[in-house]
Specification:
Order of helices and strands: HHHHHHHHHHHHH
Strand content: under 5%
Radius of gyration: 22 Å
Number of helices: 13
Shape: flat
Length: 256
């Protein structure tokens, strides 16, 4: 049987088990609005780290991936080298390229549209798209989530940056913690199994433990080693368990 790599292209709303268009739009709007409002925290954090209003808005317009944006301005606020800060943000954003590989199959968009759609390939649009049963609902979910989130994120970024400029020193108000708090709020629901939680915990230990001894921004890069380390340890443990089972089976046969 040939493996199905994309959902069926159902044109009728709700037909053949497809999800009604209204339900897809409702879910997409919910995600877009909920996450889009957190752009306010980014605007405040970015302005507090020393970036101008134009630079802050340009980050949201052109980069448009919250985790990378927060990582960049967080490293800059801590006095990190701009190149190091950009490298950390880049590595966080690489995951979107892998999302794109899967979404390209599900969306099956014309070549002329793909470069524009790529701007919206982020965690939230991917999650909504992957939850849909048909190509029609995938396209609706991706488009509505992307459009809603892009508009709201950029609007609230602008409002947050303007608000930060109006109140002056953001550290006085404790708003320097807004970026890390929002980042953790976005990350926490994604940690669904033991491996992911272990990677997150090890990354926190590496990042915090190395803060006193490494330049600002570098601990974030080192913390990225948590994922390969945990996967390597998991592979060794699985390999050892397999060898033990094989040895036990051989000993059982010898004892017969």
């Amino acid at each position: 049987m040939r493996e199905q790599t994309a959902p069926p292209d159902v044109s009728g709303a709700g037909a053949d088990g497809g999800k009604p268009d209204a339900a897809v739009v409702r879910d997409a709007l919910g995600v877009g609005v909920a996450v889009g409002l957190s752009g306010f925290a980014f605007g405040v954090t970015s302005a507090g780290s020393g970036l101008t209003l134009a630079q802050t808005c340009a980050l949201s317009l052109l980069v448009f991936t919250g985790a990378s944006q927060f990582a960049l301005v967080g490293a800059l606020a801590a006095g990190g080298n701009p190149l190091t800060a950009a490298a950390g943000a880049f590595f966080l954003g690489v995951r979107n390229a892998f999302y794109g590989l899967r979404l390209s199959q599900l969306l099956a968009l014309p070549r002329a549209v793909r470069p524009f759609a790529a701007q919206w390939v982020i965690d939230e649009t991917t999650a909504v798209a992957l939850a849909q049963p048909t190509r029609r609902s995938v396209r609706i979910g991706f488009t509505v989530t992307g459009l809603t989130l892009y508009v709201l994120w950029n609007l609230t970024t602008l409002l947050g940056a303007l608000g930060a400029e109006a109140i002056g020193d953001t550290d006085t108000w404790g708003l320097d913690a807004a970026g890390p708090a929002v980042f953790l709020a976005l990350l926490a629901p994604m940690l669904k199994d033991t491996t992911e939680r272990t990677v997150a915990a090890l990354a926190v230990l590496l990042g915090l433990g190395l803060l006193p001894v490494l330049p600002a921004g570098v601990p974030v890069l080192v913390a990225a080693l948590a994922a390969p380390l945990v996967l390597w340890a998991r592979g060794r443990r699985a390999g050892g368990a397999g060898e033990d089972r094989g040895r036990g089976a051989a000993e059982g046969e010898d004892g017969r």
